[in-house]
Design brief:
The chain has one domain: Alpha-D-Glucose-1,6-Bisphosphate, Chain A, domain 4 (2-Layer Sandwich), CATH 3.30.530. It contains 5 helices and 7 strands, in the order αβααββββββαα. Helix 1 crosses helix 4. The N and C termini lie far apart (about 50 Å). It is an alpha+beta fold and about 180 residues long.
Length: about 180
């Protein structure tokens, strides 16, 4: 019986340590990842702004619902294989160059904005750089996001998905910041 108590105490201690470290981490973070694709900026911009087609090239997205605009800003809700549906809105866009999207939901344990910058890279190629200005409110999830998954995990997944539509230029990988 002593081993059971020791085991339970160890689990509780581990959760407390993770929570305390999570509380000590900042709520806000910034991370960047980039890849270069054999695609023009207009073609790449078209792909990342056609939200209704997301389920056809982003494996984790199972459904996209287009929602009414809010104060003239485009909105949609993504349903993924893991996690709750998330509502996004476009904060800013510059055709073929820039897209800034934000999580519109306020009831999630995370939030933030993502800036998608497209820069011509020569020879018909374009670099897509994503900068996440994220917020993680739950301290345990903050610990996991920082030390287990990495703040750039979702961006890397997204960039890999873009690579299923446009070939990546060799030697260009994700670059943390």
């Amino acid at each position: 019986m002593r081993y059971v108590y020791f085991g339970l105490a160890s689990i509780v201690a581990l959760v407390v340590i993770v929570a305390v470290i999570g509380w000590l981490l900042p709520v806000r973070h910034q991370a960047t990842a980039a890849r270069t694709y054999k695609a023009s900026a207009p073609a790449l911009f078209s792909l990342i702004t056609d939200v209704s087609s997301f389920p056809t090239w982003r494996r984790e997205v199972t459904k996209v619902e287009t929602l009414p605009d809010e104060n003239g800003r485009r909105r949609w809700r993504e349903t993924t294989k893991n996690g709750p549906p998330i509502t996004f809105l476009v904060e800013r866009t510059e055709a073929d160059r820039l897209l800034v999207g934000r999580i519109a939901d306020t009831n999630l344990p995370f939030g933030g904005a993502w800036t998608y910058e497209l820069t011509p890279a020569g020879n018909g190629s374009t670099t897509l750089r994503i900068t996440e200005d994220g917020e993680v409110y739950n301290p345990i999830f903050r610990f996991v996001s920082r030390f287990v998954m990495g703040h750039d995990a979702t961006m890397k997944q997204y960039l890999s998905a873009v690579g299923t539509r446009f070939a990546e230029v060799p030697g260009e990988g994700a670059s943390p910041r």
